[in-house]
Each structure stands twice: as structure tokens, then as C-alpha cells.
Amino acid sequence: MTTKHENYYVPAQSIWPITGAIGLFLIAFGAGTYIQQLSTEQSSGGYTLIAGIAVIIFMLFGWFKNIIDESMSGLYSAQMDRSFRQGMSWFIFSEIMFFGAFFGALFYARMVAIPWLGGASNNAMTHEVLWPTFEAIWPLVKTPDGTTTEAMGWGGLPLYNTLILLTSSVTLHFAHVSLEKSKRGALKVWLGLTILLGIGFLFLQVEEYVHAYQEMGLTLTSGIYGNTFFLLTGFHGMHVTLGTVFLIILFFRVLKGHFTPDNHFAFQSGSWYWHFVDVVWLCLFIFVYVL
Fold first, then answer.
1. For residue 6, is pLDDT > 70?
2. What are the DSSP calls for the chain, one per residue?
3. Tens digit of pLDDT for each residue in 171-217?
4. pLDDT per residue as tens digits for the range 155-165
5. Which of 44, 102, 119, 148 sits a CA distance of 20 to 30 A from 167?
């Protein structure tokens, strides 16, 4: 690896920001259209959503390649390293706010809206007029039109996925320690195992969704419970997918001999993100599945 550049490096113009913006637009538009088309036989929204995800993955690999090439060319200074650390810290903070909004919606529905409709705060008539058979309980497994569903329990697949993610945080920590101790063989093993655990989590989450739709009648149209369940777990699954892609890229960099005990912030940032995703899942498991 060449010596780091002394000055602050300003990269050339790049197509990746606009590519990422297009991908995010396709994801947002496709997801909204897909939800609207759930009661119809149209599927254009689903295809648009898949196209958006593909664009984002393409952007990630392309953008990461450029950054890796710049880093390995010695263009980054100590100031640039600090910028990366600050950028990753703010990114994770924005993700905390993102999930905080969805958890806030969940808590508002459970602690405010449902009790109020059930007669709390001297509200004795609203549910009698709008929904005479309403019962202020959570999870709310019945919709105003009489459709009933089944609540997803915490045992089985959700518990297995919790154990998988907790284990993956441990294996990634061991991978990080191995890197700091220059144990390249152990680093490859622990990081590879972490990736397999992440893929296993995603596979079991797909199995859970199939079970929810086909056997439990739990769908996105299952009222406030179905909405909050799939939005929270679905967005988390998207973050696990992104984290797994991140780890795969790090694994290939490890195979090529990148990173040293004193210079491996890219690996450290991937570790930060993965541990954050694991903490979010623990909150999901407690507040969505258990309580």
C-alpha cells in the first residue's frame, strides 16, 4: 500500500449519487404501488421495487469499488479518515431516527390510539359509532370489516433468527479481533461465518413471511397490526440485506490482502453497521413479537 496523501482528497465527479437516487426512487415508488395493488392482479409495483433494489446493489458495488481503488492508491489523508468516521456516525444516527419513527408509530397505536378508541380519556362513543364490536387489545387481529388474522408468536422462526443475529455479532467481533491481531486465517473464517449467518437470517425471514401469508392470514392489509409488523420487520430485513452485501465486499477485500491492524476503518464501519442492525432486531423481537 502506498503512503497516504498529505492533502485532503477531493474525488472527481461520480455517477453513483444520481444512480443511488434513482434506485431509492424506484424502491419508494415500487413499494407504494405494490401496496396499492395488493387487492388487484397487477404486479407492476413489485417489478419496480425489485428493479430499484437491483439498482441500489449495483450502485453499492460500483461506488465501493471506486472508494477502494482510491484508498489503496494512497489518496486518503488522516483528515479524510476522520471524515469517513463522521459520515458513518451520522449515517447510523439517521438510521436510528428512521427506525425511531416506526417504533413511535407502533407505540402510539398501542399506547394511545387503541386505548382511546376503547373508551379511555372519557371517550365513550367513538368506537360505538365507528366500530361497535371494537376491543382495546393488542395485537389488534381484527379489522373493522370483520377480517381476522393471527398474531405472530415469538417462538419458532423469530426466536431462531434472534439467536442467529446475536451469534453473528459475536462472530463478527471475533473477526475484528483477529484482524487487529493479524490473524488472517481466523479473520476469513469468522467473517465468512458471519456472512452465512446473515444469509440464514434472511432465508428464515422469507420462510416466516410465507407462513404468515399462507397459513396465518397475516398480511400488509391486516389492519394496524399487519402494517406495523411488516413495515418494521421488512425494513429491518432490507437493512440486513444491505449489511450482508457490505460484509461480502469486506470478505473479498480480505481475500485480496486488504486491511492492516492499524488501517481498517472500512471493516470497522461494516462492524458498526452490523451491530446496529442486531440491536434494532432485539428491540423488534421484544416490542413486536414478545410484548
1. no
2. -PPPPSSPP-PPP-SHHHHHHHHHHHHHHHHHHHHHTTTSS--HHHHHHHHHHHHHHHHHHHHHHHHHHHHHTT---HHHHHHHHHHHHHHHHHHHHHHHHHHHHHHHIIIIIHHHHTT-TT--SHHHHH-TT----SS--B-TTS-B--PPPSSSHHHHHHHHHHHHHHHHHHHHHHHHTT-HHHHHHHHHHHHHHHHHHHHHHHHHHHHIIIII---TTSHHHHHHHHHHHHHHHHHHHHHHHHHHHHHHHHHTT--BTTB-HHHHHHHHHHHHHHHHHHHHIIIIII-
3. 999 999 999 999 999 999 999 999 999 999 999 999 999 998 888 88
4. 889 999 999 99
5. 102
